[in-house]
């Protein structure tokens, strides 16, 4: 039976879901708020794990293309202390394909392929159990009904209120993201410092992480514990929403005062700054099943970014797609969604606990905690 299925959101969760359904020859409507695929910068690099993101791509028939695009050497990880001493310098084996990196933009284009996404279709509300099915309201005032609406619309989901009253709360940790372009030619010293993958420096309640993307692009994340309004306290002239890049830069340099000069060059040469306070949903977020509506990815289980959110989102998207495509009738569709939710909640709950504990140790009053965590998880 051909169910009327809509997925709200064209991120890793929504596109993987749609792509697997497409492969199984089941129609799906993909509704994305952004007006076009390149309407905003796609973000940094993602490492896709063999048994999560890569498994999802294999279910979508895209693993070989991923392998051609991804960067196994990007798994390299270097840790420095705040005076610039290298404490760990881990290199993957040449054949290591456990967690290769891919730019988010490349992943999005790979998943998009020939999918027919409806761009510029922001959803405002989802009303379950109307006479004709689940009713979706759009920002432009239009409405449509479906048999199943899948909320893959991220942290601030507009679908989530149809199943749950949970809202994200601030973790107490903020990221400020900046970028360096063409690092190998314009900043060769920094290129050497970062290496082929990621470099991290951990201090008291703060960290600086630099990650190589493709084409000599580097994303730098300044991470620190602070109240949400930290920038107004720090300097009354510094507003992150303002375009005063130099004020933001000097505010950040003051926060990391005393760190080694080559490390601080990551902030000195950064081009623009993006404020990303880290929000999370309650660990083990679940809800009473609502027929016709479910959630995937960050909409269901927003957690600290410790390298697993996109992986879970993609695996869930692929698994739900296979289950609903195999469900012959309306009752089977509902049973398939229920079973999927139970499996998602159990797995995401385990990862949310790990990611929450991980964030406590990575941005910690005791910087040796970050090193200990690295030693626990990194293969020797
Ligand atoms: C700095 C940082 C680094 C990270 N690094 C990693 C990593 O290395 N590995 C990893 O696995 N995870 C990582 N994550 C986590 C990862 O980014 C998320 O878990 C992942 O993007 C979740 O995918 P998603 O599809 O659920 O949501 P999103 O990626 O947020 O996509 C949601 C989509 O829905 C659209 N949308 C939103 N609202 C509406 C609406 N009302 N109507 C229609 N469309 C809407 C949005 O425009 C967007 O396209 C990182 C996160 C951060 C912040």
Automatic annotation (TrEMBL):
Its EC number is 1.14.13.-. Its cofactor is FAD. It catalyses: a tetracycline + NADPH + O2 + H(+) = an 11a-hydroxytetracycline + NADP(+) + H2O. It is found in: Cytoplasm. Coiled coil: none annotated. One of its GO terms (cellular component) is cytoplasm. Residues 5-326 form the FAD-binding domain. InterPro entries: FAD-bd, FAD/NAD-bd_sf, TetX_monooxygenase. NADPH binds at residue 40. One of its GO terms (molecular function) is FAD binding. Pfam families: FAD_binding_3. GO terms for biological process: response to antibiotic. Gene3D superfamilies: FAD/NAD(P)-binding domain. FAD binds at residues 47, 104, 298. Its main location: cytoplasm. Monomer. Belongs to the aromatic-ring hydroxylase family. TetX subfamily. An FAD-requiring monooxygenase active on some tetracycline antibiotic derivatives, which leads to their inactivation. Hydroxylates carbon 11a of tetracycline and some analogs. Consists of an N-terminal FAD-binding domain with a Rossman fold and a C-terminal substrate-binding domain. This is Flavin-dependent monooxygenase. It comes from Nonomuraea longispora.
């Amino acid at each position: 039976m051909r169910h009327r299925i809509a997925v709200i959101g064209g991120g890793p969760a929504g596109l993987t879901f749609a792509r697997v359904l497409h492969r199984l020859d089941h129609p799906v409507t993909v509704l994305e708020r952004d007006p076009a695929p390149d309407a905003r910068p796609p973000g940094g690099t993602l490492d896709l794990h063999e048994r999560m993101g890569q498994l999802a791509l294999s279910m979508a028939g895209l693993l070989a293309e991923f392998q051609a695009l991804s960067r196994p050497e990007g798994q390299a990880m270097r840790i420095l202390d705040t005076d610039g001493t290298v404490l760990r310098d881990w290199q993957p084996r040449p054949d290591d394909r456990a967690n290769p990196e891919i730019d988010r933009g490349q992943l999005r284009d790979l998943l998009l392929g020939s999918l027919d996404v409806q761009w510029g279709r922001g959803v405002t509300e989802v009303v379950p159990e109307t006479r004709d099915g689940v009713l979706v309201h759009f920002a432009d005032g239009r409405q449509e009904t479906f048999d199943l609406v899948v909320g893959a619309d991220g942290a601030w989901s507009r679908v989530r209120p149809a199943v749950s009253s949970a809202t994200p709360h601030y973790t107490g940790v903020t990221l400020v993201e900046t970028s360096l372009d063409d690092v190998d030619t314009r900043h060769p010293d920094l290129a050497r410092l970062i290496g082929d993958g990621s470099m991290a420096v951990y201090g008291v309640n703060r960290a600086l992480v630099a990650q190589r993307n493709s084409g000599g692009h580097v994303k730098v994340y300044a991470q620190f514990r602070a109240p949400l309004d930290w920038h107004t306290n720090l300097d009354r002239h510094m507003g992150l929403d303002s375009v005063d890049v130099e004020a933001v830069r000097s505010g950040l340099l003051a926060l990391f005062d005393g760190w080694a000069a080559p490390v601080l060059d990551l902030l000195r040469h950064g081009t623009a700054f993006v404020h990303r306070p880290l929000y999370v949903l309650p660990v083990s977020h679940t809800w009473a099943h609502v027929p016709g509506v479910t959630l995937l990815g960050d909409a269901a289980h927003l957690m600290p970014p410790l390298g697993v959110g996109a992986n879970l989102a993609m695996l869930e998207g692929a698994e739900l797609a296979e289950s609903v495509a195999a469900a012959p009738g309306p009752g089977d569709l509902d049973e398939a969604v229920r079973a999927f939710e139970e499996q998602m909640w159990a797995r995401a709950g385990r990862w949310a606990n790990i990611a929450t504990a991980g964030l406590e140790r990575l941005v910690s009053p005791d910087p040796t905690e970050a090193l200990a965590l690295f030693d626990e998880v990194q293969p020797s």
